[in-house]
Amino acid sequence: MRAGRPSSDFDLNPDTVLPAGRKLRPAGVLVAVFEDRKGLHLILTKRSSGLKHHPGQIAFPGGKQDEGDTDVTAAALREAHEEIGLHPSNVEVLGQLPAHETVTGFMVTPVIGYVHTAFEQRPEPGEVEEIFTVPLSHVLNKDNFAIEGRMWRGQRRSYFAVPFGPYYIWGATARMLRAWTDQMS
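and the corresponding structure tokens:
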């Protein structure tokens, strides 16, 4: 699964001028889906407030591709194991969504994986403040998305948001989910 077109934190901001020759660092995030008696759910994290990139924001488990990672899928699986305790052998990789460019200079590939069995969730304290789940039906419903905005580097920047209960899912995470939602419709 990789049909569709790449997305970007700049999609809703067509006047943004990006520097020529910019170097984007590869990263992978795990779009971890599991099923229980209530249906399909997505695992998300609230990032630690002490992180350099996206502190306190809602995110998929994942991160930059390291030298030892064979590809972005390996990076996503390694990072999910480190950040939330999800062992790679418990994940069936189903495919990838189109890559997403972030304002912080990453080219993030969302890797969709099905989690076969329940696991002991262990948030890595330096990176993850909280692990929580959202019904997949909520984040794949276009009606739950809104376009919002805020000031960023002196200009108004628009972005997607898909709030759920006390969780404000926005920015890159919401944009990647919206790209998946668009593919499904």
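(Above: one complete record from the training split.) The chain has three helices and eleven strands.
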